[in-house]
Amino acid sequence: MTLRGRSALVTGSTSGIGLAIARSLAGEGANVMINGFGDREETVRVCRAIAEKYSVEVDYDDADLSVADGAVGLVARTQERFAQLDILVNNAGIQYVAPVEEFPADRWDAVIAINLSAAFHTMRAAIPGMRAARWGRIINVASAHGLVASAHKVAYVAAKHGLIGATKVAAIELANDAITVNAICPGWVLTPLVERQLADRAREGGTDVARESTKLLEEKQPMHQFTTPESIGAMAVFLCSDAAATITGAPLSIDGGWVAQ
Ligand code: NAD
Question: How far apart (Å, rounded) are the C-alpha atoms in residues 12 and 43?
Fold first, then answer.
């Protein structure tokens, strides 16, 4: 177990990729703060199961990251709970799909707040503790949409491009403090975020989810398969390892060849 004694905060970890990252970090011995929305009882049950399986401490905080105070408070409570915060994973994210001229302004604000500004606020709050400890890992879950665009995703694409920019700046500033800052850029991963898009497409096109899944993959990825949340968890663990000590400021694709084209 390479992360025994380390403490991690994974935002948006009640579901999908974030939950898989939290499990993977716990599997390496890290204590983990889970965050996000959903059924509180179920989340508390999941936290307990992870804690027991890996003999680590796991806690849950339902801070709302759409506001700065939510992000800052979450970091402070995690530091208090575990005495330190060594690994920050900014993963919480939402999607909204519409052409630019029809994109509701409040959806733009929400996507930018959760997918981009929250990561700024948590990094800003977490960095002083990491500097003092002279060790840290910051992992920002961006997207293939942080590197290339698609129609109808103006806020998401802008936020993810911005997140990669912020990742690079923080990486440069922290380069000699033993703190690395990287962005993971997944292609399609079958999670509730994508399942909702598939259901919408099936309804609008009069098709079904299975057919839309195939079309979605074929449209964007040379490799016609979803990346699993567990693979992204494994990538996060690698970025926390000693072998990854000099990987910093990098947008790292795990996307079935999406951005190779
Ligand atoms: P998901 O919908 O399964 O999970 C999103 C998580 O964010 C949930 O835990 C949710 O409760 C939380 N969240 C949403 N709004 C929040 C708020 N205001 N405050 C706190 N938590 C909030 O989605 P996912 O697919 O697992 O996405 C995780 C990340 O991965 C996102 O940043 C997403 O953009 C990115 N991503 C996903 C894919 C994909 O294909 N699924 C591809 C590339 C990038």
Answer: 12
Q: How far apart are CA 174 and CA 178, in angstroms?
A: 7
Instruction: Tally the residues of the chain.
Output: 261
User: Could you give the angle at which helices 229-240 and 16-27 cross, rounded to 10 degrees?
Assistant: 50
Cβ of residue 175 lying under 6 Å from some atom of ligand 1: no
Which pLDDT belongs to residue 167? 99
Instruction: Reply yes or no on whether 96 is catalytic.
Output: no
Q: Is the pLDDT of residue 223 over 90?
A: yes
Q: pLDDT tens for residues 111-131? A: 999 999 999 999 999 999 999
Does 21 have pLDDT greater than 80? yes
Residue 1 pLDDT class (50, 70, 90 cuts) = low
Q: Is the CB of 94 under 6 A from ligand 1?
A: yes
Residue-wise over 66-81: b if at least 16 C-beta within 10 A, else e? bebebbbbbbebbbeb
> What are 82's two structure tokens?
């575990």
pLDDT digits (tens, 9 = 90+) for 175-202: 999 999 999 999 999 999 899 999 999 9
Whether the CB of 62 sits within 6 Å of ligand 1: no
Same domain, 35 and 101: yes
- Report d(CA 164, CA 168) in Å as an integer: 6
CA of 171 to the centre of ligand 1 (A): 23
Domain co-membership, 151 together with 22: yes
Say if residue 64 is in the same domain as residue 124: yes
Range of the domain at 235: 7-189+228-256
Tokens 């920002």 belong to which residue?
140
Catalytic pick among 54, 60, 96, 156: 156
